[in-house]
């Protein structure tokens, strides 16, 4: 039979689904972040069981693989020392004359709009290890940020 008359399956024309990309580097999380990952895994497992549509089920399975990988690689950061900026710290800073309150967290719990920044963000890199009343360089400017306070993020 000629190849021209062969029916191709619909599967051959679908776009490939790639795995969700994982952030580079270590997967440091706060205790809150680890609990969030656990909750997301449980939520997706329940959703997969309840899902009746194949495409939606496959999408949720893909998400579940991502979150299970994040759970397996998660390392809960030790609480930051008092007065020292670290992962899991709530930091009050003054930058360009304005005060801000930031939480330094893991990738999966970061939400810049809510002032929760990932530990790998340039601003967090500049702040980690700084102590209260210390001024740190940022964005090519000497002593651009003053650390006004630092404490562990409340539960």
Strand runs, count: 7
Helix content: 25-40%
Q: Give me the Rg, rounded.
A: 22 Å
Major sheet size, sense and barrel closure: 5 strands, mixed
Average residue pLDDT: 90
Low-confidence stretches: none
Query: In one word, what is the shape?
Result: elongated
Q: H/E series, N to C?
A: EHHEEEEHEE
The helix-and-strand class reads alpha/beta
Strand content: 25-35%
Total of helices: 3
Strand order of the largest sheet: 5-4-3-7-6
Cα-to-Cα separation, first versus last residue = 69 Å
Please write out the topology:
Blueprint: E1 27-29, H1 31-50, H2 54-73, E2 74-76, E3 89-95, E4 98-105, E5 116-118, H3 122-127, E6 135-138, E7 141-152
Parallel strand pairs: 1-2, 4-5
Antiparallel strand pairs: 3-4, 3-7, 6-7
Helix pairs in contact: 1-2
Report on this model:
The chain is an alpha/beta fold and 155 residues long. It has three helices and seven strands; from the N terminus they run βααββββαββ. It has a five-stranded mixed sheet with strand order 5-4-3-7-6. Helix 1 (31-50) packs antiparallel against helix 2 (54-73). The mean pLDDT is 90.
């Amino acid at each position: 039979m000629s190849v021209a008359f062969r029916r191709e399956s619909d599967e051959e024309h679908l776009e490939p689904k790639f795995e969700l990309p994982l952030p580079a580097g270590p997967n440091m999380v706060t205790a809150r972040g680890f609990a969030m990952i656990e909750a997301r895994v449980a939520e997706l497992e329940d959703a997969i069981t309840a899902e009746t549509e194949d495409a939606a089920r496959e999408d949720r399975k893909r998400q579940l693989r991502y979150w299970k990988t994040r759970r397996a690689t998660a390392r809960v950061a030790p609480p930051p020392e008092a007065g020292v900026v670290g992962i899991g710290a709530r930091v009050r800073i003054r930058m360009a004359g304005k005060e801000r309150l930031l939480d330094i967290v893991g990738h999966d719990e970061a939400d810049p709009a809510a002032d929760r920044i990932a530990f790998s963000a340039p601003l967090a890199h500049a702040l980690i290890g700084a102590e209260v009343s210390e001024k740190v360089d940022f964005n090519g400017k000497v002593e651009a940020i003053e650390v006004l306070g630092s404490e562990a993020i409340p539960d």
